[in-house]
Design a protein that fits this description.
The chain is built from 19 helices and no strands. By secondary structure, it is an all-alpha fold. The protein is globular, with a radius of gyration of 22 Å.
C-alpha cells in the first residue's frame, strides 16, 4: 500500500484551503502594487510572458502528472518517478531554451520585454521545475504540505519582486523584468523544501518504468495543454472578437478574481482525490466513497459565493474596483455559476486520472474546448461579454455530465448529490434572503457598509450550515483534529 492510501482528505483539504487563502491575499496585493507601479503596458507585457511560459511548460506538467500517478500507486516507485521527472525537466528546458533563442525577435516584439527569451528560460528552469516537483509531493498525499510550501514561495516572491523592480527601475522595461527575477529566485529558493517533501533519492528509471510513464503522459500532456487553453479561452475570444476587447477583458478579469475563492476547497480536495483513488484502485468501494465525499463538500464555498453575488454583485464590484467596472456585475454572477459547476467537474476529472484513464480526461477537455470555442464565438457576437461566460457554463456542464457518467459506469456507489450538499444550498439561500432584506435598508456607500453585509452573510451561512448539517460538523471536526495531531 502506498502512503497516499492512508491520506485524510478532509485534513489535507482544510490545511491546503487555508494556505490558498493566504496565497490569494499575497497575490492580490502584488497585483495592485505592480499594476500601479509599472503601468498597463509593462505590467501587461510581463503577464503575456507568464502566459507563454504556461503554454511552454505543459509537457513538464503533463509528465509530472504521470509521475504523480505512478508514485501514488506504490512508495517503492517514488525514487524512479523522481529521477524520471528530473531527467525530463532537464531535457525539456534545454529544448525550450533553443526554441526561445531562435524565436527571440518574435518574443521581444510580442511581450515588449527586451530580455524575453532569457526570462522564459529562467522561469522554465525554476518556476516550472518547482511546480513539477510539487506534483510529486501531491502524489504522496501531502496536499497541505505542498500548498504551504507554495505559500512560502508566494511570501518570498512579493518582496523579492519589489526589490528587483526597484533595483532595475531606471528603465521601465528592464524594471518590469524584476517581477520575473523575483518569481524565479523565490521558486529556486523553495526547490529544496519541496524536494525534502518528495522524501526520496532520485534513481535512474528502468525502460519499462519510463514506458509506463509515457503511456500515461501521451494523454496527460495534451490534456494539460487543452486545460490551459480552456482556462484562458474566454479572454482570448474577447480580445479577438470585440472592438472594445481590452475593456471587456478587464471586466472579465475583475469578475474572475472576485469569484476565485469559490474553488479553493474543490481544488485542494481534487488534488488529493487523484492520489487516493489511484492508491485505492483495487478497492472500488473506497474509491467511490472518496469521490462522493469530495463532491459533497467541494462546493461549500462556491454556493455562498453564487448566492452572495446574486445579492451584492453591483455594490461589490463598484466598491472594490470603482464605478467604471459596474458592467462586471452580471459577469460576476455568471462566473460564480461556472465556479459551482467547476467544483463538481474538477474533482471528477481528477478521479478519472486516478483510475489511470487520462485518455478519458483528455477527450472531455477536448470537447470542452470545442464547445466553448463554437458557442463562445456565436454568443459573444450576439450578446457581448456575457455570451462568452454563458458558453463556458455550458461547456463545463458537459464536462461534468460526461465525467459523472464515466465514473458511475466504472464504480458502484458514486453519489453526485448528498445531504451535505443540499444543506449548503439551503444555508446559501438563507444567507441570500437575510442579506437581501438588510441591503434594502443599508445601501452600500462605503467599504464599511460592504464589509458589514458580507460579514453578516458569512455569519448566517456558517451558522445555518453548522446547525442543519451534522455531516459538516463531523467533517470539520475530523479535519481540525487531524490537522492538530499531524506532525
Amino acid at each position: 500500500m502506498s502512503e497516499a492510501a492512508k491520506t485524510s482528505l478532509s485534513r489535507e483539504t482544510l490545511g491546503g484551503t487555508i494556505a490558498q487563502f493566504v496565497m490569494a491575499g499575497i497575490g492580490f496585493a502584488g497585483t495592485i502594487v505592480f499594476a500601479r507601479w509599472l503601468g498597463p503596458s509593462a505590467f501587461g507585457g510581463v503577464y503575456l510572458l507568464f502566459a507563454l511560459v504556461k503554454f511552454a511548460d505543459r509537457p513538464m506538467n503533463g509528465w509530472s502528472q504521470a509521475a504523480k500517478k505512478r508514485l501514488s500507486e506504490s512508495d517503492a516507485l517514488r525514487p524512479p518517478a523522481f529521477g524520471a521527472q528530473l531527467l525530463f525537466d532537464a531535457g525539456w528546458v534545454v529544448l525550450a531554451a533553443v526554441v526561445a533563442l531562435l524565436a527571440g525577435d518574435f518574443l521581444r516584439n510580442y511581450t515588449g520585454l527586451a530580455l524575453a527569451p532569457f526570462l522564459i528560460i529562467c522561469l522554465l528552469a525554476t518556476e516550472s521545475v518547482y511546480e513539477s516537483l510539487e506534483n510529486l509531493v501531491q502524489g504522496r498525499g501531502k496536499i497541505s504540505a505542498a500548498t504551504w510550501v507554495d505559500t512560502l514561495r508566494s511570501t518570498l516572491t512579493l518582496p523579492l519582486q519589489i526589490g528587483f523592480v526597484a533595483l532595475l527601475s531606471t528603465a521601465t522595461v528592464v524594471g518590469s523584468a524584476g517581477m520575473v527575477y523575483g518569481l524565479a529566485l523565490a521558486s529556486a529558493l523553495t526547490v529544496p523544501p519541496i524536494v525534502a517533501y518528495v522524501a526520496a533519492r532520485p534513481t535512474i528509471p528502468s525502460r519499462s518504468f519510463v514506458r509506463s510513464l509515457a503511456d500515461y503522459a501521451r494523454y496527460s500532456i495534451p490534456g494539460s495543454l487543452l486545460s490551459t487553453t480552456y482556462d484562458r479561452l474566454d479572454v482570448l475570444l474577447l480580445g479577438f472578437l470585440l472592438v472594445n476587447g481590452t475593456s471587456a477583458v478587464g471586466l472579465y478579469e475583475v469578475a474572475w478574481k472576485l469569484t476565485l475563492p469559490a474553488v479553493f476547497v474543490a481544488d485542494m480536495a481534487g488534488r488529493g482525490l487523484m492520489a487516493t483513488v489511484s492508491a485505492r484502485r483495487g478497492r472500488t468501494d473506497g474509491a467511490a466513497r472518496d469521490i462522493s465525499n469530495t463532491l459533497a463538500y467541494a462546493g461549500i464555498l462556491a454556493f455562498p459565493v453564487l448566492f452572495g453575488s446574486l445579492a451584492l454583485s453591483e455594490p461589490l464590484v463598484v466598491t472594490v474596483y470603482g464605478p467604471e467596472y459596474r458592467d462586471a456585475a452580471l459577469l460576476l454572477v455568471g462566473l460564480a455559476l461556472y465556479r459551482v459547476v467547476r467544483t463538481q467537474s474538477g474533482p471528477l476529472l481528477q478521479a478519472i486520472n486516478g483510475l489511470d484513464r487520462p485518455d478519458v480526461a483528455m477527450r472531455l477537455s477536448a470537447v470542452a474546448v470545442t464547445v466553448n470555442l463554437a458557442l463562445g464565438v456565436l454568443l459573444t457576437l450576439r450578446f457581448g461579454v456575457i455570451g462568452v461566460v454563458l458558453a463556458t457554463v455550458v461547456a463545463e456542464s458537459i464536462v461534468y455530465l460526461g465525467a459523472l457518467r464515466f465514473l458511475r459506469g466504472e464504480l458502484v456507489g458514486v453519489q453526485p448529490v448528498s445531504r451535505p450538499m443540499v444543506a449548503q444550498v439551503g444555508a446559501s439561500l438563507s444567507m441570500f434572503a437575510v442579506v437581501s432584506i438588510v441591503h434594502r435598508s443599508l445601501p452600500v456607500g462605503s467599504w464599511s457598509d460592504l464589509l458589514t453585509l458580507v460579514s453578516l452573510g458569512g455569519i448566517v451561512y456558517v451558522g445555518v450550515l453548522l446547525v442543519v448539517s451534522p455531516g459538516v460538523r463531523r467533517t470539520l471536526g475530523e479535519a481540525v483534529r487531524g490537522s492538530l495531531s499531524s506532525p
